[in-house]
Amino acid sequence: MCGIVGYIGENDCKDIIIDGLKKLEYRGYDSSGVALIGDGEYVFKEKGRIVNMEQTVNRDIFASIGIGHTRWATHGRPSKINSHPHMSYDNRFILVHNGVIENEVYLRDTYLKGIDLVSETDTEILASLMSVLVKSSCCVKVGIMEFMKIVKGSYALALVDTLDNNRLYAIKNMSPMIIGVGDEFNMLGSDVSCMIKETNEFVPFEDMEFAVIGKDDFIIYDKEGVVVNRDSYISELNSDDIELGQYPHYMLKEIEEQSSVIRKILSEYYDDGFVVDNDLLSELENSDRINIIAAGTSYHAGIVGKKIIETMSNKPVDVHIASEFVYNTPVLSDNPFFIFITQSGETADSRACLKKINQLGYKSLTITNVAGSTLSREATYTLLLHAGPEIAVASTKAYTAQIAVLSILAFCISDYEIDLYKELSKVANTIDEVYSLKNKIKDYAESYLSDTRNCFYIGRGIDYYVAMEAALKLKEISYIQTEGFAAGELKHGTIALIEDNVPVLAIISSKDTNLNTRGNVKEVESRGANTLVISTKSVSNESDEIILNDVHPLLTALITVIPTQYISYYAALNRGLDIDKPRNLAKSVTVE
Ligand code: M6R
């Protein structure tokens, strides 16, 4: 949530900061702002998208230091006044912040008595607090150490001291931030995407560290002011990977990358047999229960993963919603193992669970798309998704990649009879075939969803799990209230909501439940529902609207989900909505 980018160097950084912010816009997009420091200090901010703010920036300014911010509001509604950067009461410090401050009232009442604040944000308190603390310290460094002692909560901060044009400061606790290392410049950012055009060398921060950054060097300190030595790493991200290319939206691009992602996963994990870290496999084999922890779409991938792991290996698996697990932890087995599934590797709810798991001394695995992300660094093991950057807020290719990687893991700890390489290759080919159905699916999206207020997806078993993901995708970007329902459960209450023309979309891929789900389709049809069936060939009826080729029964989620992603995309397109940046959301949810 919220994106930060910073630059210090020789060149004019206006465009570097604004371009960087555009790459971070997926993290929050209700307002944005920049502070540009060169021949003076200039702050530009605006409500709405970055382009709105960009239009207000004076092109004549030369700035060799800049910080920028794109916001997802937590404290204070989206508005120009609440958008970052914020200045201290005496105009000395300019600051941008990602995170949530827990003791803002205490800080304001204790340290800022008599100081007028103009915004509703916790960030403005931090800017003024910094000034107060630095004034009573010998230098900015000691002021920052005092700051870290008293401020409670999550924060990634980029900070400029207007009395010193040779430095940029960064402070981090529980929100992501990395340094980009350049030649005669250095940068700061919430992730590598905002800096990759300028550099591919990065240094991560850990919690409760801060950095003093000049154009030629930087020093990272721990909270006691002791220098931290940390190696840099080279990112393999290609700046073309984050461009739209021929596509009108990232979501469509990412839907249509899924067959290549499955092939990429095979190429990364297969070398004359599947190759996964042996220590990790032993931990999994020796555990008495696997706990999968995740949020949103990653949780939905987790419940499909449970089915695959339990079927292949007979090992019991529980799947937990991260935000529930952390404060409502169930009784754990004697020897549990924990798998965190997170596209971004930064989700605060999942991270809070991982911290708890680490404190309890358990081993864990993070399955993530982002090498070097926080959950990857903090877990014992990491498996990468190799899906390439997922920019659209609605997750698509990460979901299929997560299921594919989980199936490889399940295979590696089991004796299950399956040629998984062949079956996943078949999945990739079958996904390619689904792409050719998109115009037909587009028409269905229009006829079923253009003016409905609500919608149901139903299924049983894996089809139910896909129904849940399909419903999340549809509501998230089209704002149609949608439920993913266990088909057999409808008659126990929810069927009361079925009335004339309510769309009910059924997913049917299993011969064991085919007839039962078809019975449920008939039940809702008799009550006026407008039904559509997505089925796989071997269980299809001629009248089914979308028929997909068969894949292995444990892998059907990887193909049945694709038409549902298209349905969401076209439903939102028909309604003229902002597909890649749906309202109220952000891609990387770094606050609890
Ligand atoms: O980065 P993560 O996989 O941890 O993110 C979890 C959820 O926030 C994410 O999947 C969210 O539900 C998506 N926007 C859904 O499309």
How would you concisely characterize the structure shown here?
This protein is an alpha/beta fold and 592 residues long.
The overall average pLDDT, rounded, is 95
Under CATH, the topology of the largest domain is which? Glutamine Phosphoribosylpyrophosphate, subunit 1, domain 1
CATH class of the largest domain: Alpha Beta
Uncertain stretches of 5 or more adjacent residues: none
What count of domains describes the coordinates? 3
- Largest β-sheet summary: 8 strands, antiparallel
CATH-defined architecture of the largest domain = 4-Layer Sandwich
**Going across the major beta sheet, what is the strand order?**
3-2-4-1-10-9-11-15
Helix content: 25-40%
Which characteristics define this entry?
alpha/beta, Glutamine Phosphoribosylpyrophosphate, subunit 1, domain 1, eight-stranded antiparallel beta sheet, Rossmann fold, binds 5-amino-5-deoxy-1-O-phosphono-D-mannitol, seven-stranded antiparallel beta sheet, 592 residues, 18 helices, 3 domains
How would you characterize the overall build of this protein?
The chain has 592 residues and is an alpha/beta fold. It has three domains: 238 residues, 4-Layer Sandwich (Glutamine Phosphoribosylpyrophosphate, subunit 1, domain 1); 189 residues, Glucose-6-phosphate isomerase like protein, domain 1 (Rossmann fold, 3-Layer(aba) Sandwich), CATH 3.40.50; 145 residues, Rossmann fold (3-Layer(aba) Sandwich). The chain contains 18 helices and 25 strands. The strands form four sheets. An eight-stranded antiparallel beta sheet has the order 3-2-4-1-10-9-11-15. Strands 5-6-7-8-12-13-14 form a seven-stranded antiparallel beta sheet, covered by helices on one side. Helix 4 packs across helix 5. The longest helix is centred in the middle third of the chain and has 18 residues. The mean pLDDT is 95. 5-amino-5-deoxy-1-O-phosphono-D-mannitol binds next to helix 9 and helix 16.
